[in-house]
Structure formats: C-alpha cells, structure tokens
Amino acid sequence: MSDVTTAEFNEDGKYIRKIRSFVLREGRLTKGQSQAIEAHWPAMGLDYTPQPLDLSEVFGRDADTVLEIGFGMGASLVQMASAAPEQNFIGIEVHKPGVGACLADAGEANVTNLRVYHHDAMEVLEHSIADGSLARLQLFFPDPWHKKRHHKRRIVQADFVQLVRRKLKIGGVFHMATDWENYSEHMLEVMNVAEGYKNQSTTGTVVERPDHRPLTKFEARGHRLGHGVWDIMFERIA
Fold this sequence. Notes:
The protein is of the alpha/beta class. The protein is 33% helix and 18% strand. It has an eight-stranded mixed sheet, with helices on both faces. Strand 2, helix 3 (75-83) and strand 3 (88-92) form a beta-alpha-beta unit. 39% of the residues are buried.
C-alpha cells in the first residue's frame, strides 16, 4: 500500500493548505532505481509547477488522460499504460524508491504514454491539472486510517471529491479501490451525497474489478487468504 499524499486534514475533514504541506519521502534507493531515475526522468518525469499542464504538449497528442494518485511501486500503473497505448497516463508518488521502481519498469516495457510526478498529490491536482481534463482518476489502496478517531484523515472527503470532480471531464470516472471494507463504506457514504456524480454500480454499491485495473500480487495473496477488495466507480455527470 502507498501513502497517497502527506497532505493533512483537520478534524472536520478539511484539507489544511500550508505553505509547506508535505515532505518528499526520499527513502533508500536501490542502484537500479537510482539509475532508472537518471535514465528516464528526462523523458517521463514531470517537475511540479503551479501552472496547469498542456497535456497535448506533454504527450505530443490529444488522447484521454488517466491520473493515478499514490502509485506505490508503480507495477500496476505500468501494466495499465502498456495495455492501453491509446491513452495517456500520469502517476503521482511522494516516495522516491516507488518513482524509481516505476520508471525502471516503464523503461523495460518501452512504455511511452506514461509521465510521473515525485510530488505532493494535492498540490499537483489543485494546480497542475487543468479543470475538465481527465478521463479517469484512480485512487487505489489509500491509507485506510483504520482507527475510528483517525477517519477524518482519510483522503476521500467531501472537499477532495469535489476537487476530483472539477478535474474530470463530464463522463469522466473517479475509480477507488480498497481492501478495507470499512473504508469502502466510508467512500460510498461520501460519494452518495457528492454533487455531480453518479455511481456506475447497478446495485448502487461496489463494482466488479474492471479489466483495466490489474490484479496486484498483494491483492492476489489477499484473495487466497479470503480477504476482500472493493472497487467503487463514480462518473461525473455535471
């Protein structure tokens, strides 16, 4: 699991905008990760700026763009980008070894439709992503903050989902996945009352894992142990 962002929320679930809202997590890089950053950052790395990206300039084409917040070590993100060459993919991760691992995998797979940020997800989403520009936003296995007193720290809160909605095109999808049933219930609770969204589930609850989200090793192991994973997909309708 990945720390999605180091942004903080107050007791009412409001995002706290501070001058320095995050610390980049350097971690211990392997030689391979370090070499991958050196080799592939010029082509695939995105340096944070507070101005919105021109996606057609970044990717050299106009195509649907998928953004993933907190991609961890990046294996499934690289798989997705490799499997859908007709789409653009952007990943955000604050943990440097994860960025290195992702770039190493992407380089090995000769993926050209992926770009990555090593930066705070909230800042990137707020300032670097143009409104109405995303076909899908992915939030997979965010920190569940499983103790009840910490639930307000969960990233899926009313303010955050409206920020996501602003960045999605009409018809764009906010796709969440969690292996904590309680968090899936929290996600549904927040999303069911969120303005401008419609649940893509025919039952009004969760959906089956869609083909575009690869089964992770962690998840496959969980299935063998009888652990559940819950996918939730809401479409922007207004």
